[in-house]
Amino acid sequence: MRSLWLLALGLTSLSASASVEQGLAQCAAVQDKLDRLICYDKLAASVANQPVAATVAQPQAAAPVAAVAAPVPVAPAPVSAAPVAPVSQAAPTVEESFGKVKKTEAEPERIELVISAVDTDAYNNLKISFTNGQVWKQTDGRKFKLKSGESVYIEKGALGAFYLGLDSRNTTIRVKRLK
User: Cα separation of 29 and 32, whole Å?
Assistant: First the structure.
């Protein structure tokens, strides 16, 4: 076991001449699960410390491996040298991103919406479409009557929950944003 451990450490100390693909093949050849995991962790750390261009642009010969089956050669993935142009989009408004992304500093705790359509699914849960294009779905099994044209609010609850309610009622239902 100790010699296997030393072998794994020797495999993980990839020199500058070994490429990432060869290092992966060497780690895959290690039989012990823990030693193989350590090999992959060391490989990831060594790749993180190297510049990206050096790991891709310099395919070189691998270091010899003793007492381990020969690694299976892995074909390198094609790399595109052309830069990707950034896509410019208008930033979504606070209301558009409400319930869709994690909390930001400018996100409100409650929004007011007008219902455009109400549907039910196979489990009799509500699917509510609003005039601003948002679609929310009921996630609890409570009965709650809504109709098109009503003004409702959606507010944040604990642990990322959202609740839909009416100002005229003292009850809410739990909802999740679909679109």
Answer: 9
